[in-house]
Amino acid sequence: MEQLMFSGRQETYDVVVIGGGAGGMSAAVATARLGARVLLVEQYGFLGGAASHSQVLAYCGFYQKGATPVPAVLGIGAELLAELETIGQTVAPIMSRSGNWIVMLDPESVKFAFDRMSDVAGVHVRLHSKLTAVALDKGRIASVTLADHDGTVTIEAGSFVDASGEATLSVLAGARLTSDISRGNHVQPASMPVRIGGVAPDTPVDRTVLAGIIAQYNATSSDRPIPRADGGVISRLPISGDVWWMTIDLALGGLSGEDLWAVEREARRQAWRNLALIRQMPGFERAYLVATGPQIGIRETRRPLSRDDMTGAALEGGTRRSDGIGRAAWPMEVHEAPGQAFFVDVGGEGFADIPMGALQAADLGNLYLAGRVIGAEQAAYGSVRVMGTAFATGHAAGIAAALGVTARQVCVDELRRILVTQNAIV
Predict the structure, then answer these.
(1) CATH superfamily for domain 9-185+300-421
(2) Band of residue 407 on the pLDDT scale cut at 50, 70, 90
């Protein structure tokens, strides 16, 4: 029997970034602005990360907690917000029920804004591309192999950035992990936010009525109870005016396609079940399900060990550091189980500095980390994983990766100087 094989291709870049979310796009744009030739790789057919593929339509971490919104993240993150405004989406922060400032999002605007930011910076982008293999040479990554419908391509580069969310690049490169769902480590549950239409703009959400509907359902149904007894997070989205509802929490079984199918199938079933319940609310009688994400919103699966993991103690004390490359201002939001979350506020001035070492893999000299892949202890991870903060860590990781193409040891002072010239907060 004749065996047909895809032909492999080979290309070279200065920097390769895996993952097209907030951390990855920021890293790629920052790298390109320093004149490096950079490739941004994304497995979906669009950029935007969890905001576009999981309907996580709120940016957290852009502002410190307080009576007024004080910026904690500027730089490329602020430019992205400005791009959203140009498209026509309001980015004015609103205070969430937890007392923290968030920016609500329109998913199509996010996709388009990420495209425009990448295009203007001159970033090379590959969509629909999966990372399948990593080649090492003397403790450094030499190349990665990608697969798409046209076959495989091997990409050589001087530096690499893991902004994949699931630490796929780090794992394939053999990096040590501090958290790994496949080894039985406890991880925070996943959530599936949904968009609901058919609700008039002036319709209020009566939380007392909603809580009563949920309590009645949980008391009388043999089905899985709804873990967020108060109805969860409900907000209006910009542009569409759709209702954004997050009340589906499920324990994640693993990372395999089979495991993800099981949890996502159950989440979609619950979305339709919950729709029938919310239709009992006054003004919601004609509500309908606009969208669920292409995937469930994953908070945590794997995390590599960095050279200097962010700690919960640093956040509680609001620690300042001379090697800080950005600010973590979102509280330590820890989801212990579905429907069970608590917040620990950041101390000091309302933020803590993220050390440069948290963006560098402990064992691989040219692997940098961005977004929810950065090095962090369990409690600290609840703060630094959010998308607003990911813009800051991606921005810094991209500059470090560009500098690391020609220098084995990145100078923190030089990195911080460049961040300041690019309007980032350090």
Answers:
(1) FAD/NAD(P)-binding domain (3.50.50.60)
(2) confident
